[in-house]
Amino acid sequence: MRLHQLTTGDALASLASAPGGLSSAEAERRLREYGANQLAELQRKPVAIALLQEFTNSFSLVLWLAALLAFLMEMATPGQGMAKLAIVIILVIVVSGVFSFLQEFRAERALRALRRLLPQHVVALRDGAAVEVAAEHLVPGDVIVLEAGANVPAECRLIEAFGVRVNNAALTGEALPLARTTDASLAQEWIEADNILLAGTVLVAGRAKAVVFATGMRTRFGGIARLTQSGGEEVSPLRREVARLSRTIIALAVGIGIVFFLVGRLMGIPAPADLVFAIGLIVAMVPEGLPPTLTLALVLATQRMAKRNVLISHLPAVEALGSTTVICTDKTGTLTQNRMSAGLLLLGAAEHEVTPGALVRGDHLTDVYRPFFLAAGLCHDLARGAGAAGQPWLGDPTEIALMQTAHAALTELPTWAKVDEIPFDAQRMRLSCAYETPTGRVVYCKGALETVLPLCQRVLTANGSEPLSDSIRARLVDAQETMAARGLRVLALAHRPPESPSPGMEDALVFAGLIGLEDPPRPEVSEAIRRCREAGIKVVMVTGDHPRTALAVGRRIGLVHSDAPLMVSGARLRDMSDTQLQLALDAGEIIFARVGADQKLRIVEALKHKQQIVAVTGDGVNDAPALKSAHIGIAMGIGGTDVAKAAADVVLLDDNFASIVAAVEEGRAVFRNIRKLLTYILAHNMAELMPYLGFVLFRIPLALTPMQMLAIDMGTDSLTALGLGVERPDPRNMQRPPRPVGEPLLTWRVGLRAYVVLGLIEGSAAMAAFFFTLHRSGWQYGQMLAADDSTYLRATTTCLGAIVLMQVINAFLCRSDSRSVLATGVRGNRVVVSGVAFGLLLTLAIVYQPLGNALFGTAPIDAGVWLIIVPFGLAMVAADEVYKRFLPAG
Asked: What are the tens digits of pLDDT across the range 14-48?
């Protein structure tokens, strides 16, 4: 027989223990054998290695190569400014790497939070005496003493229990405290036995002695810790897309660089100049400013989300939220308000059905059915709280709801002395309390109707108590079923007045009525569910509650509309194969009820195998593996454990499902904004590429130097690109379906607009300005100019200025990928306006200040030269308007 199926004596014997516990010597021996009662930390890569990896991604490797070549060129041909270029490139790598590194090691934070949940010390019996020992020194066979409020430090089998109730919510999701007993259990699985205490749970009432049978990583708690640490962290869609974009652009840049280096050699360009050209071409094609700009845009998006009660702890989750196709959500506290309240009262023999809000102190109902309200207010195990300054009662939310109902009906509750109690347990499913009153002893009882009704002989009616006939019993059972179908948790209340003595405390009771308790849905949730449907997002309820309760709540919030939604219980899910589960997930409406932590994780994995982008909510320790495995893990900020918050990407500050929908809206805006800033950046990359093509193909001076390109990429364009990354969400975003799985950031439409519609015209403007300056100075085709020639310096400066001015126009065009610039205007985004102003001021400093001239190889130019840009700017606006008219974004 298993441990939970044994008697207390046999359970102790099976662990070679005794009621007085272990001897100190034996405890030491077992500690050496079984190890400390703590969570083991899995091997993690060293911090230095993790940091190094951030500096060796695909973008960084190409830039390291460019920096190395630049240093070699400086050594071969000093004075060309290649050393400055190399230093700037290295600074770009460092900035991007540090931003990424700060997002690592969240699993270690989750582990530290798990450890904080376990108690530090516990009272154990050693050598027959009670001593306080460190919780990590507990071993199998130790007998420990627990009081109400204590955290359970290890897996234990009860050997003494007095009114013990335990809250397993952190591990199982069950919100209601459960009674525990020392009796041998008939359950097949030990985790379902009512004589077992699980590590990491809380004793909410009573006192107990228990023998430890599992410690550390051998506990269910330890199993969750192992899943949390070893579960593969899902790569967000954004990271995948940026990595794919990086590979595409790098392959293109390196390939073009090599091809044109070989072309240059064939055309007789000296090797040093040809190498400078190749390095410049690679730098021109690689958007060095994209990684840091993207990171900063995500940071600003997180600040905007925080104003909507959404705290982002993992930056890529910002965009991943916008890609979400399925949300797996808890019920209690997320869809509902996480507070129990009375929803319906059925008084006496089903003669009166009233809502608690209809109660008026001193009216006819409260007078006639006073015993009902006294039973609700006196039959409990609540403790006094902080009074008026805080929660007046502490304990079971169900009993608090009953107490509130009693206070709503009665002026005040009597202060009689409680003289006896038969505590609630899973077998009895009822609680009885006896009070000594001025007129004699009175008994109050509450519990499940099926256990209370057989004890009753009479029923309270408007005319007093009457015999309880079979027909009345049948009506009461029907009333219970009706209330339960509405999702209410139904309790029966009874009493025995002083004038009805009985040999047994619970004999000859008078049935007083039924009370239906509910956890009200949040008022905003119905609208949020509707918006999810409109946005093409499927919502799946995954709860530990009873299926009937879950279904009733689902109907109330609009999650369920059909007559027969698919209901999958934890027991049924256990019998399903992975294929059956994936097929079940095709159902239009599906609810999972009575599911455990491993099952929640399994649901997430099944959805991922169906190529869904999954967001999952959770608040307990048991939710941590699923939160970590999902594309987006969402923890509750108010009711969530530290473990859940540390494992999640997102924390809801108000525990509200509606906030998830707001976050999805922001996330969708982020992806579209990333495309906008990508279009903006790639357009000037095309403009930077054209001078190098002209240099090698047409033997003209290089119109833009590598340092000047970096001045654009990391200077004049940086703040403007950031502004495009934080454009406000378009309300139409939530009327569109989620972005198709696998759709890249750089689509053919984005490439066409960036490189051809915008970039080609911008590059033409830059080259036109360059040639205009050369010809004004008497330059002839075929004439090569020295790097420090004043004509060459002015010409490259004009090219740089032309790109900056065209980028100003480009910034306002890129604010929308579908609406006309006449509709978006130049106002509405202060960051873009500030970025434009900053870029222009920086350009003036580079062009007209000696320090700028020295750093970037520029020279002052005439003000009239800037007018060359006007026709090209108008042409770019016209071309983009045609593009938006015939090829708008979806």
From this structure: 999 998 899 999 999 999 998 888 776 555 566 67
The closest of 333, 331, 298 to 315, measured between CA atoms, is 298
45 token code pair:
């890569």
860 within 8 A of 852, measured Cβ to Cβ: no
CA-nearest of 582, 540, 588, 536 to 322 is 536
Q: Is 746 helix (H, G, I), strand (E, B) or coil?
A: coil
- Higher-confidence position of 781 and 385: 781
Indicate whether 309 pLDDT > 90.
no
330 given a catalytic annotation: yes
Q: Which one of 330, 519, 623, 649 is the catalytic residue?
A: 330
CB 328 within 8 A of CB 542: yes
CB atoms near residue 54 (< 10 Å): 19
Looking at 3.60.20.10, 1.25.40.10, 3.40.50.1000, 1.10.565.10, the CATH number of the domain 317-337+522-655 comes to 3.40.50.1000
The residues, any chain, with a CB within 8 Å of residue 687's CB and separated by 6 or more, are 759, 762, 763, 765, 766, 803, 806
What's the fold here for domain 255-301+671-729+743-886? Calcium-transporting ATPase, transmembrane domain (1.20.1110)
Query: What is the rounded CA–CA span in Å between residue 548 and residue 552?
Result: 6
Model confidence at 361: pLDDT above 50:
yes
Residues 6+ apart with CB under 8 A from 590: 540, 565, 566, 567, 568, 584
Hunting for tokens 């139409």 — which residue is that? 732
Domain ranges for the chain: 3-41+119-230, 255-301+671-729+743-886, 317-337+522-655, 341-518
Whole-prediction pTM: 0.64
In sequence order, which ranges of 307-378 are alpha helices (DSSP H)? 317-322, 364-368, 370-378
Find the helix packing angle between 237-266 and 657-697, rounded to 10°: 0
CB atoms inside a 10 Å sphere around CB 304 = 17
**HSE value, Cβ hemisphere, 13 Å, CA-based, for 728:** 6
Strands 489-496 and 440-447: antiparallel
The CATH number of 3-41+119-230 is: 2.70.150.10
Tell how strand 538-542 and strand 590-593 pair up: parallel
Mean pLDDT within 845-862: 91
Token pair listed for 753: 């607009």
CA torsion sign for 596, 599, 605, 611 is negative
* The two structure tokens encoding residue 123: 């009272």
The CATH number of the structural domain formed by 341-518 is 3.40.1110.10
